[in-house]
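Module 6 notes. Inverse folding takes a fixed backbone as the condition and produces residue identities as the prediction. Think of it as a translation problem where the source language is geometry and the target language is the twenty amino acids. Below is one complete input and output pair. Work through it position by position during the lab.
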């Protein structure tokens, strides 16, 4: 391996640490740590939203899907695109609400039980998402330093670095690091695609090398399989707490809405480029080590299919994207433990200094939990879909209902969150496989979990008392 790769990674690490330490000087209060003092302009919001969404789920799981199935892997990213179109109308309402976490929203619109169940669902989903970012970072470090760093040791190293960066300055640190990371990743990937395509012999060589199904809309998926990729990402996007926290951090409603436009454009372009890179990489490297670990195709292509400088920059961009997403999804549940548990129930009168100390401690503890999950995970794609499904089924329906369905009430929300979480967690159990027909039990959890949540939300809400007018006022209902 060229020392250039190590130099580029070293520079990225130093720059990110410098940004984080610089922003730490601005953190004086709880609001500074949790929502960057509600001061983020649209430009910063675009890149922090883009960086928090495009991480290992796209760079590893999405790329693995593209390596195996071609452009049909875009069904996974397409769910997020559909969600983004709806978010354009939700963003100003979310900024108007201006709280700290999704459970804040759940209690204001429903009740305390919904808040507590929301915290549980977020903790399960977001630490799972953080865990596979650590897997991705560990893979990259192992590829670069195979004789020195194993994939497992790489997970430990990345966990320490992510915990440190996240704990230093909270949202302010995360958001401004994302600007640096987003710019690097965007320009590097746009340059890398034509270079890698040329190395593969041109686009015609790629299409002749790969199966024709790689270039069809559904590929070798059935429509149901495509929906099992589409729905979890669509619903995660619509209810994504990290996204809502960015809107809560915006300077104004206008900044929130403008940022969504930039986010839509950036997400469609980058996720399409990621899938295209993986497809071209599958034509260039159809066998060998990467065929056994296709989630590494982007990093492997950077290392073996590009000029040294561009390959090093692409590897650095992928590594930085993984760090960024890990920061975002580690920080988000830490805010839940602070705002929804510590301040709400344990120390409501705690000083800003005490809250900041406990906030950083929560980041450390959740980082350790995410690392524990990473050490026991084999498939990034399966872990991603599990995390997306918990959040999508349990929380997204009640979050959207808070803004758009006046009749949704506390009883309906509580039953929906509980049902969605329960079905997702236990869907792969022996009981389900023993007592349900194989054609149902072998389906992904998203369809049964979402159905259970929607039936509870709608049915229970209609059978019980409607919400009070004061619960509706601040949501524009």
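Target side of the pair, the amino acids:
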């Amino acid at each position: 391996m060229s020392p250039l790769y190590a130099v580029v990674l070293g520079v990225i690490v130093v720059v990110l640490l410098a940004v984080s330490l610089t922003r730490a000087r601005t953190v004086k209060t709880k609001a500074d740590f949790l929502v960057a003092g509600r001061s983020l302009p649209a430009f910063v919001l675009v890149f922090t939203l883009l960086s928090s969404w495009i991480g290992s789920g796209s760079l590893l799981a999405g790329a693995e899907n593209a390596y195996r199935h071609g452009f049909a892997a875009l069904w996974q990213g397409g769910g997020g695109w559909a969600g983004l179109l709806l978010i354009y109308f939700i963003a100003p309402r979310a900024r108007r609400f201006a709280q700290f976490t999704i459970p804040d929203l759940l209690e204001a619109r429903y009740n305390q039980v919904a808040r507590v169940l929301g915290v549980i669902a977020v903790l399960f989903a977001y630490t799972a998402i953080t865990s596979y970012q650590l897997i991705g970072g560990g893979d990259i470090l192992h590829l670069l330093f195979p004789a020195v760093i194993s994939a497992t040791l790489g997970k430990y190293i990345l966990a320490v670095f992510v915990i440190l960066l996240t704990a230093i300055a909270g949202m302010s640190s995360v958001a401004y690091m994302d600007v640096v990371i987003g710019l690097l990743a965007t320009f590097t990937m746009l340059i890398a695609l034509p270079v890698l395509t040329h190395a593969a012999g041109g686009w015609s060589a790629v299409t002749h090398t790969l199966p024709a199904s790689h270039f069809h809309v559904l590929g070798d998926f059935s429509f149901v399989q495509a929906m099992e990729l589409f729905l979890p990402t669509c619903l995660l996007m619509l209810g994504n707490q990290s996204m809502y926290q960015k809107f809560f951090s915006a300077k104004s409603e206008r900044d929130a809405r403008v940022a969504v436009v930039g986010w839509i454009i950036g997400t469609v372009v980058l996720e399409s480029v990621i899938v295209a890179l993986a497809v071209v990489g599958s034509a260039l490297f159809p066998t060998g080590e990467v065929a056994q670990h296709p989630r590494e195709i982007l990093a492997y292509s950077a290392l073996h299919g590009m000029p040294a400088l561009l390959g090093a920059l692409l590897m650095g961009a992928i590594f930085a994207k993984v760090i960024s997403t890990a920061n975002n999804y580690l920080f988000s549940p830490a805010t839940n433990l602070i705002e929804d548990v510590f301040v709400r129930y344990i120390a409501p009168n705690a000083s800003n200094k005490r809250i900041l100390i406990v906030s950083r401690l929560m980041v450390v503890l959740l980082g350790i939990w995410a690392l524990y999950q990473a050490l026991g995970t084999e498939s990034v794609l399966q872990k991603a879909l599990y995390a997306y499904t918990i959040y999508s089924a349990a929380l997204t329906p009640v979050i959207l209902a808070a803004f758009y369905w006046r009749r949704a009430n506390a009883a309906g929300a509580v039953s929906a969150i509980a049902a969605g979480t329960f079905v997702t967690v236990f869907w792969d159990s022996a009981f389900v496989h023993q007592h349900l027909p194989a054609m149902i039990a072998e389906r992904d959890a998203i369809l049964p979990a979402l159905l259970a949540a929607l039936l509870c939300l709608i049915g229970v809400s209609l059978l019980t008392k409607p919400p009070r007018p004061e619960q509706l006022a601040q949501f524009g209902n």
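Reference fact for the lab report: The chain has one domain: 3-380.
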